[in-house]
Amino acid sequence: MTTQQAMEALHALPRLGSGKPGLERMKNLLAHLGNPEESLQCVHIAGTNGKGSLAAMTAAILTAAGYKTGLTISPYVVDFRERFQIDGEMIPPRTLASLTQKVLGAIEAIRQEGGEEPVQFEAVTALALLWFAREKCDLVVLETGLGGRYDATNAVPHTLVAAITKIGYDHMELLGDTLDKIAAEKAGIIKEGCAVVCYPDQPAEAMGPILTAAAEAHTSIITPELEDIRQLPGKTLENRIDYGGYQASLAFPGAHQANHAAMAVEIALALWREYGYEISDDAILQGLAAARMPARIEVLRRHPLLLLDGCHNPDGTRALAETLQKAKYEENLVGVLGMLADKDYQKMLEILAPCFAKVYTVTPNCPRALSGEDLQKAARFHMDAEAAATVPEALRAAVRYAEDHNLAGVVVCGSLYLAAEARPWLLKEAEK
């Protein structure tokens, strides 16, 4: 099996199960693979926004401390192998192909036995856990896919730290239509006695279910104090922070990322305090500075600006808009926007409107995409909007418009699917 065949086989599996939510399918799959999860010690991250950034920071700190660290992220942006990393290196193509065969073999055995077939995310998660166990990782940082309680990643038994990033409105058809319902699902990753680290600016409505879950698991919650998180002076879109004396320059712009950095520090301190992992202050600072993730308010070029963000819901969009406004870019940018039809795109457009002099709308490469034409019709009530036939066409037009009108640059945002398609083009443009 080639790497390409492996990826196609995994993507051919069903996205959602037919039965009621639960972990039985996942546990059955892991049992057929020899229960690799049993040997892993985990940091588990759930929440609506910021999971990937927090996971990257945490994993980078643990690697800097000398621990062999596995990392899962979801979704990937450019390369499917981004989903599986050890010490910042993606899974080798041959390993991906051979472990996919093993996972598909287990799925075939389950079919033969008449069991319920695992879904795509379960197969991908099982593959990651199998690789981490084989490589004898000291610690594993797991990002949930969706929710928490019934997420495939929640089949791991040894959660040392559960971290909950900011709760917002997303995937409401599956998780519930209020913040407390969504938070209750996310808080399902909290296990008996594990340390819990919470986002410092969590909406009050979300805190109730998180506190309840922690109390039921006989553990307390560590929440960084907002007044202890300071943003230090720096260049435009530079993010220099101080959290309790830990001063670092983050690769991720935005005040919200300072909050994630504070969480990453608290996760490291909890691993040291509660479990005896040796994580020095130097390792914490090195990890915070080294952490990288594509399409998280990613600055690909400063002058003229080329910025890529995978924001795909109102909270993520608000974080981007606030970052751009703080950098004094109001109405001095051209946007390339692509959004999915099942997202709250009307609210996202409203939030983004003050940032752009003009936007080009496109259709992301996803079956759930809102067409560029429909997005243009919605956007024109908020800003000067023009639909483009393809993503490269929109990118070229945006760069040209910014040059012709002496604007500060181009921002591409609205969906991770759009980010995946645009990033290679933007990287080439940034090199000019």
Automatic annotation (TrEMBL):
Pfam families: Mur_ligase_C (PF02875), Mur_ligase_M (PF08245). Belongs to the folylpolyglutamate synthase family. Its cofactor is Mg(2+). InterPro entries: Folylpolyglutamate_synth (IPR001645), Mur-like_cat_sf (IPR036565), Mur_ligase_C (IPR004101), Mur_ligase_C_dom_sf (IPR036615), Mur_ligase_cen (IPR013221). It is an enzyme of class 6 (ligase). One of its GO terms (molecular function) is dihydrofolate synthase activity. One of its GO terms (cellular component) is cytoplasm. Its EC number is 6.3.2.17. This is tetrahydrofolate synthase. Keywords: ATP-binding, Ligase, Magnesium, Metal-binding, Nucleotide-binding. Residues 296-415 form the Mur ligase C-terminal domain. It comes from Subdoligranulum variabile DSM 15176. It catalyses: (6S)-5,6,7,8-tetrahydrofolyl-(gamma-L-Glu)(n) + L-glutamate + ATP = (6S)-5,6,7,8-tetrahydrofolyl-(gamma-L-Glu)(n+1) + ADP + phosphate + H(+). The lineage of its organism: Bacteria, Bacillati, Bacillota, Clostridia, Eubacteriales. Residues 45-266 form the Mur ligase central domain.
